[in-house]
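Entry 14: structure prediction run for Transporter. Input pasted below.
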Amino acid sequence: MHYLMYIVRVKYLSTFLLAVSAVFFTHGQGCSDAGFCTLNGFKPDAADSTSSTYKNSIASGISHGEADHGIAIWSYYIEYHRQLSTRAGLDVKIGGINQTDENISATGFSDLYINASYGFIKNTTVLGGIKIPLQNGNRQSDEGLSLPMDYQSSLGTIDLILGLKYEIKKFTFTTGFQQPVVQNNNGYLSELYPADSPFRNFQSTNKYIRSGDVLLRLTYALKITKRLTISPSALSIYHLKADRFSDITGSRQVITGSQGLTFNGVMYFDYALSKKSSINVTIGKPFITRKVRPDGLTREYIITFEYKFKF
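Run finished. Output tokens:
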């Protein structure tokens, strides 16, 4: 009987590994959002779901992805969780990013997230928080010209974040809303760069006004072994309105094509090293994207490695 269960688990594992390969190698660009889909509470966490012994945890992670215009992205973060009661929790997260291509390499802190959760009825948790920028979104070139958003380590916006998570058996449904309430100070205009400059090819974002996003995620947790859980996830992010900017004459312009849907396939691999520690590997890849993404958040793929310690 144990041998039969092992064969079934291996079959499931093989199927999901094939799914990962399909997700990873499908052409497309997306996996873009303003940060809330990776917050604790908004993402699945199989390693924490079976234990309430420890009230605190610290997670540290590093991600790699490829953005538009061939920009390689390395991002890093540290996140602290405090379980305040059987119902309430608090998360604080801080991150940074490195953006590199043949023209420039830029590194800097990104944002501070403060997020609270409260389980108000059975299987249902409400989430609420704020994103505070650690940069103003207006890093400049050596010549004193504003760089495109693709080279900004932060959007430079203060955002309000709200969410709701519902769990039933092995399924988790999460919805969220993130809305900038204070916009950034970006002043990038492509026309200010020489005609042969690579920075001429980006979407202008002078006095950029970024619209909000709505998130929908459905996740299924499959326990492969006592320590390993694999969770495939369908993640949709809808950008509610077209973004806007001011052109070189000061006239407000709509960025056509910036409104719309990004749909991603994501795989989460959670492995418990012990009762106190775990590792997580996340792989994401898009299937549907917005036509224009002026915020520079696009990732053609993303891979994240995280270590978590509870105490």
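Notes: The helical segments are 2-25. Will compare against the previous run tomorrow.
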